[in-house]
Amino acid sequence: MPIQEIHKHHLQEIFHQIMTLLEKQEIVNALVRRQDMPRQNLVESLVARQHLVELEQKLKQLHPADIAYILENLPLLQRTMVWDLVEVERYGAVLLEVSDAVRETLIEDLERDELIDAAEHMDSDEIADLVPDLPKDMVLDLLTSLNNEDRAQVQEVLAFPEGTVGALMDFDIVTVREDIKLEVVLRYLRLRGELPEQTDQLFVVDRTGTLQGLLPLKDILIHDPEVEVNDVMIVEPIFFHTDEDARDVAQAFERYDLISAPVVNIHHRLVGCIGIDMVMDFVSEINQKERLGQAGLHEEEDLFAPIWKSAQNRWLWLALNLVTAFIASRVIGLFEETISMLVALASLMPIVASIGGNTGNQTAALIVRGLALKQINTTNFLHLLYKEVGISLLNGLLLGGVVGLFAYLLYQQQALALVMTAAMMLNLLLAALAGIFIPMGLHKLGRDPIMGSSVLLTFLTDSMGFFIFLGLASIFLR
After folding, report:
1. I want to staple 25 with a disulfide (CB 3.0 to 4.6 A). Which of 51, 98, 126, 341 is the partner?
2. Tens digits of per-residue pLDDT, 428-455?
3. What are phi and psi of 186, to 5 degrees?
4. pTM score
């Protein structure tokens, strides 16, 4: 069994054990409350504490990411109970692992002193990740509690727009000079005693802090200690600027198999680094948002959020869907007379709309991917357009022929079969064009092409599919 499956199975076991402890506590508490005995409050407190101590010990053994998984899968009341048992010094690490929606519910239970205590165990870039989710008065208290260096770093990260390298970078880096020997570097590392996570290389800078190159850790070990850094360092390293798009960085990490990379400002001075862990977290978050966007959810939703809040999260696209459904119904209404004359049309209409919707979604998925990877530009756009139009016409001819033959076998009407074939070809052509221009249009407007594409595509392929099919039928089947 793969290690990932083993870990998942183990985590589910732990979650089941925690749920069992919580259920036992509720049962025992209910039984104690029913008994009329002296010092009932004391007895109830002792019984409850017995299970809580066991639960607390289990939580101490878990990684913050595993605690986050458990909290995300608990209803609100039980989540609060478990959250109160987490050690304060681990609050920050857990908050960074949970989803944004669940983080809000946990932060609501935090006192000012607890937040400040948690911040003492967090790096400045991690604190910056939490600040947007904190109440304004709590942000001020938190920033005031930091020393000058940490406060400046937090403010620097917050100054960068979301989705840029500067908003993701880590300030904890190890730098060396190029004119020293490897022996000196080794001595320095021993004195330092600890390296930042994901460290696979040191950053070589000059007296002004300008990036000069990279010194992989393996080169420190395999070369003669008397050799100078400038003799073994990488002099043309891959680096990123603070204002670069994090999506581009993620692609570069994948392309060049990077573990970490330096981040420089406009003056080419080293200000931090970005590691594979940050990139993976960013990619995971983007993918999750895109999946939610495709489902018509404009923000991440807590699985156990209150009904009213969850309902509000779904209103926007449901309302848009309702409007498009009304329009599609009126399109059908325009051809009531035609449908009443030939009942077969009613049973064949969904086929045209369904195939058109799938074609549009396939094309849109390719376009969104091409936009994300920056593969689409003015030079190759027409070639891409001709290709998708050609594919839609070919598929329309093939599938339309099959559907036309099916219609002929069912109803023995040659004209109806030809109408089905023509409608299928036209609707697939329309779907392909919509699959190209809807995401492209949203991208040009500065909107996420994922958001809304599915709803608009469904509207066009349904309403126009009905219009094309019924329009052709009203002309040729009377």
Report:
1. 51
2. 888 889 889 988 888 888 777 766 677 7
3. -60, -40
4. 0.67
